[in-house]
Give the backbone structure.
Amino acid sequence: MEARLRSFLEPATDKQVFVIEDSTTREILGFCGLFSINQSNQCAQLKILPTKQKMTAVDLYIDTLRTVIDHAFNDLGLVRLFVNIPADDIFMTNLLGLCHAQKLKTECSYKGLSLSGDGFESYIILKDQTY
């Protein structure tokens, strides 16, 4: 299975959302996006919502995350991405680990970005530790 990203919403200054779809069948496999893009602080929230059975598309989601991370760091000039996931989501925990995400140890916020809450864990991806 090969996937491609296509823009889901018209690009805005504070968010970019992409559809993850099968390049052959055009079946929607998920959504991925950058939210609360803050150019002055060079950070954003990264979110991914897989809609396909997770275990059958691991490589697809890794490639998708890496593509969006590369876009955020190299095209948008960001240096930090924050990710919140459900605390019990082992698939996403492993996926983030493969993308060099680091778990934040405490609940906090950064420059107006809410980074954690009940039942969620927060991660950070740093440009200088990814590339």
About this structure: Strands lie at 3-7, 15-22, 28-38, 43-50, 80-86, 102-103, 109-110, 113-114, 120-126. Residues 12 and 37 are 9 Å apart (CA to CA). Residues 58-75 form the longest helix (18 residues).
